């Protein structure tokens, strides 16, 4: 029986050189295929710039592509090299509705000041260093939708991916004049000063859910087999902080596969979140779930033991796959973690789930006993 699992990894421009040349991309695709991966999520929208030649960006902001890649098309290179070795490609719109990082909105808001997200005091929304576009504004939504559709219409991709910034808005936002007027027309009063008022939270989250529904429909109109993939933060925190109501996305069937960022630094914490997802927020949705696992960030690197425990627990809970942040974690220490995957959990080849697979009641081949044996062998080998 063919194993059907999501075995994915994010490709970044931060902390990585992979996208800097066609040669480095080719080497990375060879490496991932040999390790047992079957899908890559290359960044295509970051720091307010695209990593492909964009007519939308050229017409709106006068910048066709990130100047670092002015003479290339990194997305086209990734697709060509991934196809060569049988990997799926789902472009990742990393920045989503963020406009810049501590640059007062950067180029985007310098040219479109009316697109700024505003807090209750009228200030540009900045959360954890990120400056934000107003994702509740129909013009901003149409701009983002145009970027996504530009990719799916012009490139041979397998889907598109949003994350903790798409669709999203820090809950401090929504106090711009347009949104306040919209709220007032519905409730005959201004929004509450408390940005985390329950009703105010849900009203804004529903606007973003409606946007995702529209994005989903537009992508499917281009090609019904394209996957709409989302990597939000974990519920219910994501709703309270970023207006992301991901359980409703799944309930409304406007996301095909979801990768909540279960970025925890130890296995007990990871296990606790997975239990909540499977039993509560995403109950009955395990076939569509492939959690995001933090492999590397700054000085942190996941241990081999935790890595294998997480994969085994995923399978035990009927979760057939995971996505790792990010590629360079596989290459540290002479490819140590890649070797762990290749020699243990990813020894057998696996097919990336198709839309029809995801629509079935379960795509999980019951591999838990097999992986448990591999984990046992792994512990024996390191003891």
From TrEMBL:
Keywords (A to Z) from UniProt: Signal
Pfam families attached to this UniProt entry: GHL10
All residue ranges annotated as the Glycosyl hydrolase-like domain in the record: 6-305
Organism, scientific name: Scytonema hofmannii FACHB-248
InterPro entries reported for this sequence: Divisome_Glycosyl_Hydrolase, GH, GHL10
Matching Gene3D superfamilies: Glycosidases
Record-given protein name: Family 10 glycosylhydrolase
């Amino acid at each position: 029986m063919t194993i059907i699992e999501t075995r994915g990894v994010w490709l970044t421009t931060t902390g990585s050189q992979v996208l800097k040349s066609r040669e480095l991309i080719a080497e990375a695709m060879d490496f991932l295929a040999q390790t047992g991966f079957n899908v890559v999520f290359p960044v295509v929208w970051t720091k307010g710039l695209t990593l492909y030649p964009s007519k939308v960006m050229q017409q709106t902001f006068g910048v066709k592509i990130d100047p670092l890649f002015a003479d290339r098309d990194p997305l086209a290179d990734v697709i060509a090299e991934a196809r060569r070795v049988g990997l799926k490609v789902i472009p990742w719109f990393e920045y989503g509705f963020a406009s810049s990082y501590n640059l007062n909105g950067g180029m985007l808001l310098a040219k479109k000041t009316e697109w700024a997200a505003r807090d209750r005091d009228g200030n540009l929304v900045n959360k954890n260093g990120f400056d934000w576009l107003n994702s509740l504004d129909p013009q901003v939504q149409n701009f983002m939708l145009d970027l996504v559709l530009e990719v799916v219409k012009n490139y041979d991709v397998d889907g598109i991916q949003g994350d903790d910034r798409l669709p999203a808005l820090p809950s401090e936002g929504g106090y711009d004049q347009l949104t306040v007027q919209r709220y007032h027309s519905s409730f005959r009063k201004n929004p509450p000063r408390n940005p985390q008022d329950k009703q105010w939270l849900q009203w804004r989250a529903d606007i973003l859910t409606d946007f995702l529904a529209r994005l989903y429909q537009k992508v499917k109109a281009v090609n019904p087999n394209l996957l709409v993939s989302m990597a939000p933060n974990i519920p219910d925190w994501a709703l309270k902080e970023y207006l992301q109501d991901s359980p409703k996305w799944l309930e409304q069937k406007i996301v095909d596969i979801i990768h909540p960022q279960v970025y925890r630094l130890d296995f007990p914490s990871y296990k606790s979140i997975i239990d909540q997802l499977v039993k509560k927020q995403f109950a009955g949705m395990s076939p569509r779930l492939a959690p995001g696992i933090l492999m590397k960030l700054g000085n942190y690197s996941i241990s081999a033991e935790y890595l294998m425990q997480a994969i085994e627990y995923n399978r035990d809970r009927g979760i057939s796959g995971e996505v790792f942040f990010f590629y360079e974690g596989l290459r540290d220490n002479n490819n140590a973690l890649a070797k762990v995957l290749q020699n243990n959990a990813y020894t057998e080849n696996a097919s990336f789930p198709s839309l029809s697979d995801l629509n079935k009641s379960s795509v999980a081949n019951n591999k838990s006993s097999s992986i448990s044996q591999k984990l046992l062998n792994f512990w024996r080998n390191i003891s």
